[in-house]
Amino acid sequence: MCFIKSKYSWVIAPIVWILGVIILLIFNSCHNYAWVKTNFDMNRGSPVEVATVALFFLVILFLWILPPVPLKPLKGKLLVANFSIITLIAICREMDWHKAMIDVSHIEGATHGTPFKMRFLTNSINPLSDRLLVFFCFAVVIALCAGTLIWYIRPLLKGFFTMHPVCWSVAFIGGAGILIRIFDRMGSVLKKDFHFTMSSQLQSFGTIMEEGQELLLPLIIIIAIIQAHFIYNNQKTEPDAIDAFKLR
């Protein structure tokens, strides 16, 4: 706990991510695709996927037990509620709950696959009520995520170059999220655009890097919450080295 309150705690997120990726690569080298599929990607039922969802629920708990901002002003409660809703959206995506809201598979010419794509909105064969629901979900998610990013983008960029612990953790959350998306789309893009079908070894690598980093995400988020709590919302009798970041 002393280290997470020190001025060097900005290295925690990079260390966690690097160690996590090393462990994932070791798993990938020691097991075949069938093992990886069973333990990392079984339609939301694998041990890694279950652990990921559990950790995201733990994130919501941490947000209120160790709030990253003071809760006494209404602004603080609204910010923590906003973070909680964004986390709940991540849980819904991980569990595919959003896909269960719409089923147009029985309609000829309707958009198949996930309805949460722009082509679902532009396909007039899809029922209007379903398209409005998807549009509403898009609007809420974009408003919450983009609004939060715009609100914090300047201090995040400034803090990254001044080794601010929370900013570095958030940077690794964003970076891991981008990598997850790349590994998620890698197989379909290679097949569709380059007519290249991945071998089972490459599929195993893609799966383990996607699902494994999804497991790392809530861990790094929890680290960021704890760091922010000690910097901005911790009552103590003597100063810590991390207090200097309050001025940045």
Strand content: under 5%
* H/I helix tally: 8
**Classification by helices and strands:** mainly alpha
Query: How far is the N terminus from the C terminus?
Result: 22 Å
Q: Give the beta-strand count.
A: 0
Mean pLDDT: 88
Cα Rg: 20 Å
Enumerate the spans where pLDDT stays under 50 for 5 or more consecutive residues. Answer: none
Biggest sheet architecture: none
The shape, in one word, is globular
Work out the helicity level: 55-70%
Q: Output the helix-strand order.
A: HHHHHHHH
Question: What do you see in this structure?
Answer:
With 248 residues, the protein is mainly alpha-helical. The chain is 69% helix and 0% strand. The chain is built from 8 helices and no strands. The longest helix is centred in the middle third of the chain and has 34 residues. It is globular and about 65 Å long. The mean pLDDT is 88.
Write a compact overview of the structure shown:
The protein has helices spanning 12-30, 33-40, 47-65, 74-95, 118-122, 128-161, 165-194, 200-232. The protein has 248 residues and is mainly α.
Quickly list its features.
mainly alpha, 8 helices, single chain, 248 residues, globular
Topology, pairings included?
Elements: H1 12-30, H2 33-40, H3 47-65, H4 74-95, H5 118-122, H6 128-161, H7 165-194, H8 200-232
